[in-house]
Write a structure and sequence with these properties.
It is built from 6 helices and 11 strands. The protein has 234 residues and is of the alpha/beta class. Strand 1 and strand 2 form a beta hairpin.
Length: 234
């Protein structure tokens, strides 16, 4: 089953006496375990696509399917539950809570889902180890590097065992080496957890680490094409 499916999705906003088309009949299918990079100039519609795919914004027309569920008829409460259980969102800035440790950043998300703190603690430790932060669970954000904070961000998004990961410019604030390690980690996560991943990026250098690349231009999405090279989990 396709994990994420956008079908003829159009998103328009009022613009003076007319309308602005942010997304123009966009079609995109991402399968479990597939890692797609999305590139394009600023204002091309990349962020709008992620917002619609995350069900944060309802499209003007078209369908957004997540794990086989048609989201168009869901209430706000049902959409929130769908995001909570099936969608992992990784923002450009980790936005970690300064007062919480790395482990607590993860545990609180499961607590909000009604999970037991004991089970959440075990899973948090496992995920921090998986993203390369073993032994860092008690550190607070100011004690972590930018790359480490982004790794906490990724681990937090994995707590709900989502079907899809939507990633917005995860390397924008990082140097080359840390950027490379973060994209390789996303590659590993997609493979090991069989998650459909869409990553918006301006760093075309890292596109070969993904399975395919799609380009946005003036709200129009080109069909994803295979990357020049594909690198497995690292």
């Amino acid at each position: 089953m396709t994990a994420l499916n956008l079908i003829n999705v159009t998103l328009q906003y009022p613009d003076g006496e007319g309308v602005m088309t942010a997304l123009d009949a966009v079609n995109l299918s991402v399968n479990p375990g597939q890692f797609i990079s999305l590139v394009g100039t600023s204002g091309s519609g990349k962020s709008s696509l992620l917002a619609v795919a995350a069900t944060l914004i309802k499209p003007t027309s078209g369908l957004v399917m997540i794990d086989g569920v048609d989201t168009s008829g869901l209430s706000e409460k049902e959409l929130a539950a769908l995001r909570r259980d099936k969608v992992g969102i990784i923002f450009q800035q980790p936005n970690l809570l300064a007062s919480l440790t790395a482990a607590e950043q993860l545990i609180i998300t499961d607590h909000l889902r009604g999970k037991s703190l004991k089970d959440a603690g075990v899973r948090a430790a496992q995920l921090l180890d998986m993203v390369g932060l073993a032994g860092c669970g008690r550190k607070r954000p100011h004690q972590l590097s930018g790359g480490q904070r982004q790794r906490v961000n990724i681990a937090r998004a994995l707590m709900a065992q989502p079907k899809i990961l939507l990633v917005d410019e995860p390397t924008a604030a990082l140097d080359h080496d840390r950027s490379d390690s973060i994209v390789r980690l996303l590659r590993k996560v997609s493979d090991e957890f069989n998650i459909a991943t869409v990553m918006v990026t301006h760093d075309t250098e890292f596109v070969p680490l993904t399975d395919a690349v799609a380009t946005m231009r003036d709200g129009v999405l080109t069909a994803p094409v295979p990357s020049e090279a594909s690198v497995g989990a690292v």
